[in-house]
Amino acid sequence: MSYKTIIFNIKNDIARLTLNRPKVYNSLSPLMLDELLDVMQKIDPDKGIKALLVNAKGKGFCAGADLAGGALDFQSNEPVGEQVFRVMEERFNPMLDAIYNLKVPTIAAIDGVVAGGGVGLALTFDIVVATPKSQFSLVFLPQLGIIPDMGASWHMPHKLGIPKAMGHAFLGEPISGEEAARTGMIWKCLPEDKFESGINSILKRLSHGPTRAFPKARHAFGKALKNSLPEQLEYEAEIQRELCNSPEFKEGVHAFVEGRKPDFS
Questions:
Q1: Among the three residues 172, 190, 207, which one is the final residue of a domain in this structure?
Q2: 123 shares its domain with 217
Q3: Could you read off the pLDDT of 148-203 as tens digits, one per residue?
Q4: Count of domains observed in the chain
Q5: How many CB atoms lie within 10 A of CB 153?
Q6: Domain of 172?
Q7: Does residue 1 fall inside a structural domain?
Q8: Cα(105)–Cα(94) distance, rounded to whole angstroms?
């Protein structure tokens, strides 16, 4: 399938996805949402894919929903709120769920503006790396009078704490790439001259890792935010029962005993 709003290819076991609507800061049109969901359904470790890298063309990673692109009809008999609810249920949320449930590790490489729902999209990926010039802005409340969505209302308080999340949501003050890394909102902020090499280094490490175990850790950390310690201990035991029957665990134990690095390929 050829795409009009994104670029997708697989090279050296890495799926590479580029958001490609630079003139509108890669805002999410209905077509882009459909294409993103289609791509997510193609990313499978059974096809030899080891990781997903997502970046963007232009000065912005993603500006959230494309409100100027005609997605909402203010002249319709259907209330705008109902239109928004429907498009969230039918397009935005399934796309984000598909990313979260991918069976490979995911990386977002950000070198520019991230605004509105783009913040939620970016933080859905497992590892987020940005440049110092990158800026994350929650524009929902100060510009539109609505709450953060696309998962931003979940990610921000969990990553920054409620006081910081409230301040940024209420006031819309941008968060630089450096501040995002310093506060633990993202993994790292790399200078532009080391950005590409840094991303490639992460991809190399992930591609040589236990591909199927990475998503298990993703879900374990997600459950830890709501589980009690006894519940989490029980969940860990269930996942370890599954993973310890895998060839990767067997290789890891042999490598440990033999004093070498494991070969998960």
A1: 207
A2: no
A3: 999 999 999 999 999 999 999 999 999 999 999 999 999 999 999 999 999 999 99
A4: 2
A5: 16
A6: 6-207
A7: no
A8: 18
